Amino acid sequence: MIAYVLSLFLVFSPVELAKHDVFDIHEAVSKELITVEVLSKGDYSGQCMAVVVNPLKGNGYTLRIPAGTHFIAENDPEQDIFVVEEQLLVMTKKESQTFSVEGFCSQHDDASPEEGSKFKMTKTNDEKLMELANFINGKGFSEDAKQSAIWAV
């Protein structure tokens, strides 16, 4: 009997599943849905970037950081960081959230970024790096293999 009552409650209750619109992070910035600040976590590979997302309009976004995103160091002697795996960031609040993002050094000779260093987010213009990202994305390569491949390009 209790199961029957519960099933009626579930069938007739206005339960709505959370709906998340998925946006390319670059598109969301250009549409002024969000602002993004990118900071180094003090390393040059792996989960080395902190992406701070501030929603400006609406809520419930899922942001896609596409493979081929490049974080360009504002401090020139520091290494730029390249994203080779698509990553999803789920905005669960109407307030600023910080996400760890995986990326890899794309300049073997520059210095490792210091913690808190600022970066500009862009899409890469380097055709060879983009080709590499398209190849690596979703294949489960180790962090060492990803870093070595980027340095080889």
How many helical elements? 4
Number of strands: 9
What structural category arises from helix and sheet content? alpha+beta
Integer-rounded radius of gyration: 19 Å
What does this structure look like?
The chain has about 150 residues and is α+β, with helices and mostly antiparallel strands. About 25% of the residues lie in helices and about 35% in strands. The protein has helices spanning about 1-10, 25-30, 125-135, 145-150; strands at about 20-25, 35-40, 45-55, 60-65, 70-75, 80, 85-90, 95-105, 120-125. The strands form 2 sheets. A 6-stranded antiparallel barrel has the order 2-3-8-6-5-9. The protein has a 3-stranded mixed beta sheet with strand order 1-4-7. A hairpin with a 4-residue loop joins β2 (about 35-40) and β3. The longest helix has 11 residues, at about 1-10. The chain is globular. The model is unreliable at about 1-20 (pLDDT under 50).
